[in-house]
Amino acid sequence: MFYLLDIIGTMAFAMSGALTAMNKKLDPFGVFIIAFVTAVGGGTLRDIMIGRTPVGWMLDLNYVYLIILGFFLAVIFRKKLDRLRTSLFLFDTIGLGVFTLIGLEKGINIGLHPVICIALGTMTACFGGVIRDILCNEIPVIFRREIYATICIIGGILFFGLRELNLNQDVLYLITSLVMIAIRLMAVKFKWFLPALEKK
Predict the structure, then answer these.
(1) Is 118 buried (19+), middle (13-18) or exposed (0-12) by CB count in 10 A?
(2) What is the pTM of this model?
(3) For a tag on the chain, would you pick the N or C end, based on fewer CB atoms within 10 A?
(4) pLDDT tens per residue, the chain (200 residues)?
(5) Closest to 119 measured CA to CA, from 97, 143, 103, 142
(6) 107: nearest Cα among 117, 93, 118
(7) pLDDT tens string 49-59
(8) Dihedral of CA 139/145/147/149: which sign?
(9) How many CA atoms lie within 13 A of 33 on its CB side?
């Protein structure tokens, strides 16, 4: 289940990056680069911070192949993805839920405190999107009022809470990722936002 989630997250973020880049009318090389950094940016930063080098995608070419596949799927089916914003949002949401779990698990595997694991999960899920948005000249989603990084933190707390119940690991992954995806979908549908801090 863990490896399957990793595959889904990588594909989802690669397609999210490609769709964003196409929305900005970049050339094919630019679209591929954005897809690549979106898919591996958060994981690369995480691996460097925990001293795991070379970073994951450099040791397993399957990730590179998945990103290439996600890039081609996004390009080939871009006309069928007629509601580009909806497609981008869906892939980004799936990636958010999945990559949070991957970051949590990496932290647990090296014996880090749950708070640090949640920070790693949030970083893994969000920073590929931060790099994507910066390169595409957008304010990163994580810095807007939209509920984004908060979902990763909620997901991390839920994960460690359910872990105390000794649930099957696959069930634990599935419940946590589905809850995170559901929260983001509801946040957008019902227009939930964090309050903006303004200088009076």
Answers:
(1) buried
(2) 0.82
(3) C
(4) 667 777 888 888 898 899 889 989 999 999 999 999 999 999 999 999 999 889 988 998 999 999 999 999 888 887 776 565 666 677 778 888 888 998 999 999 999 999 999 999 999 998 988 999 999 988 887 777 677 888 999 999 999 999 888 888 888 888 998 899 889 888 878 877 777 666 66
(5) 103
(6) 117
(7) 999 889 988 99
(8) positive
(9) 10
Which segments of 50-83 does DSSP mark as H helices, in order? Answer: 56-59, 61-76
Structure-block tokens of residue 36: 């690549």
Beta bridge partner(s), residue 148: none
Q: How far apart are CA 63 and CA 130, in angstroms?
A: 20
Q: Phi/psi of residue 193, each to 5°?
A: -135, 150
Token pair recorded at residue 98? 């999945």
Instruction: Give the residue among 191, 106, 112, 183 at the shortest CA–CA distance from 149.
Output: 183
Element (H, E) at 173: helix 169-189
- State the Cα–Cα distance between residues 102 and 122, nearest whole angstrom: 10
- Three-state DSSP at 32 gives helix
